[in-house]
User: Fold this.
Amino acid sequence: MGKNAIIAGIVSSMLSITICAFAFAAPGKQEAKPSSAPTAVGPELIINGSFETCVPVFSGEFQNYPYPSTNITGWMVSRGDLDIHQYPPWKTPDGKQCIDLNGYNAGSLKQSFATEPGATYRVKFIVAGNFMGDGAIKPFFVRAAGQSKSMQFDTTAMGKDNLAWRDATFEFTAKEAKSTLEFGSLMPKGNGGAMIDSVSVRKLNVPLKPVPQSETAKQPPGVASPTGITDLATADDRLGTNLQLAAKKGYIQAGADGKFQPNDPVTRGDFTNWLTRIKQISLTSPEEATYADVPTSDPNFRYIESATQENLMSGYEEDNKTLFKPAQQISRQEFAELYCQFSDKQAAADKLSDEEVVQELRFSPSQSGESTYKDITTFNNAQKRYIAVAHHAGVLSKAFNVDPYAKTDEQKFLLPEKPVTRAEAVNILMSLYGN
Assistant:
């Protein structure tokens, strides 16, 4: 059906999982607990936890559900797309259907329910992995009420004859009268991800906890004032207003020498920091790192983790490791691809045909005749569609002062491999989200 992997694979006893607050056991097995252990009380809060009810009722092996589908009863696809797989051919642990968090792309789904602020809730579910999809590592997250946990496991050597689902638990403290539970893939791209089934949420019989004030990216600690940055005036004049505003709001800060270095290339780590702050994304506090090269001690750790869980940024799979490459510079054409991801336009870009990409880059509704960037032949073929979307939205013009219809030749060159400067990155993020 046009997919590299249709059928869900299942994680075996060789499953390699790193996670703090998850507990695993064979499905249906009851682990011995001390008599003082918290127990679940009250009603089940999740609707359709085994994903048995959906539209359409299908007879094939899988059905794909793209964002923002609500055709899985009780659930909403909150980004990307995902699959429901059913038995046969693979046996699922609860009923005949289960969720694969990667359809054609990385996906996530969520459900909201009533909670009591300060009360603790236990999420129970059964997890496996689609060994037939892209890559052996199947990372994903579960989160609720601003608390999250990530896990990843290796499906190397898995196959049809060594299947094993595993029970998992996650606990959170409600902060409001309504909480949202979300499961999402942390695979950078591709199909065949983590598999989820038999989701349950129930309140625990433990004392209420104080409800902390939510910590958001728009109020970071140690905010510097505009006068604390001494070199903003060295940036191009067209970028100065947004740089000053970003400094005033605390989105950017001076280094130890009092300088921001606006004309230096921006790195993926710093770009993600500013993106998260300027979009005012709530920061999560995961206890474990998603990326092998961004440890919990990294100053951008929380920003990178939060942006990843919001599907604003993603990493790379290399040598069975998930990497973010925080020190890597961003070229102009790479920025176009990032823009499509953090502005939720990636799916639209991926659907563009080659003919539509060519038309978008060569014609303008406001112009007569054909025109295009003078260096279009140097564009990366894989990123042309993202450049087309960013061009159509006017983002490239705002970011880099380029325009294929400009009167000056200099503006007609995109220079796709040229690194994005720190000032350019702040300027476009502020233009999109900061005013």
In short: Residues 422-434 form the longest helix (13 residues). Residues 245 and 435 are 9 Å apart (CA to CA). The longest strand covers residues 194-204.
